[in-house]
Amino acid sequence: MERVNSTLLTEFILTGIPYPLRLRMFLFVFFLLIYILTQGGNLLILVIVSVDPQLHARPMYIFLGVLSIIDMGISTIIVPRLTMNFTLGIKPIPFGGCVAQLYFYHFLGSTQCFLYTLMAYDRYLAICRPLRYPVLMNGRLCTSLVAGAWVAGSIHGALQAILTFRLPYCGPNQVDYFFCDIPAVLRLACADTTVNKQVTFVDIGVVVATCFSLILLSYVQITRAILRIRTTDGQRRAFSTCGAHVTVVTIYYVPCAFIYLRPETNSPLDGAAALFPTAITPFLNPLIYTLRNQEVKLALKRVIGGPGTKGEV
Q: What homologous superfamily does CATH list for 11-305?
């Protein structure tokens, strides 16, 4: 393939998700509200964790604050462009914008996978090694683990973006998806994509399988430790502590595995599944962690109530 052909394509057109025309306005308002509430909810958690002295020094809530930053980023990368698809007219995305969208989505998405693993490890130490927890999960280690997750995520995102856009794109420019993701973009390449597909499958497969296996292993140990607790109330509190994390991990990993770890198909279900990690999970995370976490709710009361509520437990 001549190099000149790789420069012919300067923009892509995202076809979006299929929908009945009569629902155009409803879907526009729906996803706009999803975006606003996602940003507001995650910003609220970030402020609570940063301001409340009882939370911002604890590893569990440092991880939660970082998760809120990631959710705000993923939502900003994907949802505004998705919302634009429900307005009139064709709105192309520049070639460079498509590269950036793919990079940042996989950068933040893989960082989120690593962070979920760190959160599971933190809960494992807190429940299975409670006496040594302050030593094993100190502030310095927590900061190092978070930094490592960001670095690993950036490397993963860069690898996927470089592999995808090193190929020439000279043909049709309609991406049959609502954002620039690897499977949909590769269909437009004017070259053999076999190596790309294999590397993508192995790379994403290793990240997802490793993180999920470590999370599963952590929660097997956590469950065994909880069942040894003699009081029902103690078991309930321990399960409640981990319930939010298990819920979030489930609704995040299942769609990701469906999209990337199966034979390639161009099914409408791909778009529906992709809405979970890109729009639904970032929206639900603040609700799940706030409604199921008594400490966050009490911290919110302290922040809103001011000094008069500092003594609440």
A: Rhodopsin 7-helix transmembrane proteins (1.20.1070.10)
